[in-house]
Amino acid sequence: MAKGEMPRVTPRTQEDLGVAFVALKSSLRNYLRRRVSDPNLAEDLLQDVFVKASVAINANRFPNNLAGWLYAAARTTVVDYYRSVRPLAIELDENMLDRQQACDELLHQELSLCLRPLVQELPEIYRDTLIAVEFDGKTMQAVAVEQDLSLSAIKSRASRARVMLKEKLLSCCEVEMSVGLVTDYHPHAITRPCNGCG
């Protein structure tokens, strides 16, 4: 089984759950580390997620989509943690928005590293147009002149290339966005790992 690949069998025993959890452990750990600053705390929360999954298996509640269930459990575990440590009165932190924006921009940059290998998988006419316009920063008019095509043809190719790239990205990653920036992402466990993505 490839690293990060999810077993296709719905877990029915603790052993099945253990195999499935190992396959997703690294991705879940990264997910949690982006939400809490202390790596030791992230490890503790990761264990809490496993305990929740174990309790569900022992109660004969078998999730159909284990990967989705584990990520949902990770989200609620983080929320529960912050609720438990939240002071009664919260002082407004003027830098909070800046830190969140910086975190979102970092996630946006991380995910953008996956795009170049995915672009390489596009058919040549779309790949070359998208690389020229989006990666090399050329204007569509300049690309049209270079390729001896009309501006509308280049616009059409660039638009189609973006749609194809989005489909490729979403086929291997779950992406959450807000105000044009990535707020979270994680690989789909049931698909092949994306080329070039961690």
What features would you highlight for this structure?
mainly alpha, 7 helices, 198 residues, two-stranded antiparallel sheet, disordered N terminus, elongated
Summarize the model shown.
This protein is mainly alpha-helical and 198 residues long. It has helices spanning 14-33, 39-58, 66-85, 96-120, 124-135, 140-146, 151-172, and strands spanning 173-178, 181-187.
Question: Could you describe the 3D structure shown?
Answer:
- The protein has 198 residues and is mainly alpha-helical.
- The chain is 64% helix and 7% strand.
- It is built from seven helices and two strands.
- Strands 1-2 form a two-stranded antiparallel ribbon.
- Strand 1 (173-178) and strand 2 form a beta hairpin.
- The protein is elongated and about 65 Å long.
- It starts with 13 loop residues before the first helix and ends in an 11-residue tail after the last strand.
- 18% of the residues are buried.
- Residues 1-9 have low confidence and may be disordered.
SSE map:
Blueprint (H helix, E strand, L loop, with lengths): L13 H20 L5 H20 L7 H20 L10 H25 L3 H12 L4 H7 L4 H22 E6 L2 E7 L11
Antiparallel strand pairs: 1-2
Strand order, largest beta sheet = 1-2
Output the radius of gyration.
Answer: 21 Å
As a percent range, the share of strand residues is 5-15%
The 3D shape can be described as elongated
Report the count of strand segments. 2
The CA-CA distance between the termini, in Å, is 16 Å
The poorly predicted ranges are: 1-9
Main β sheet profile? 2 strands, antiparallel
The tally of helices reads 7
Structural class: mainly alpha
> What are the secondary-structure elements, in order, as H or E?
HHHHHHHEE
Mean pLDDT: 75
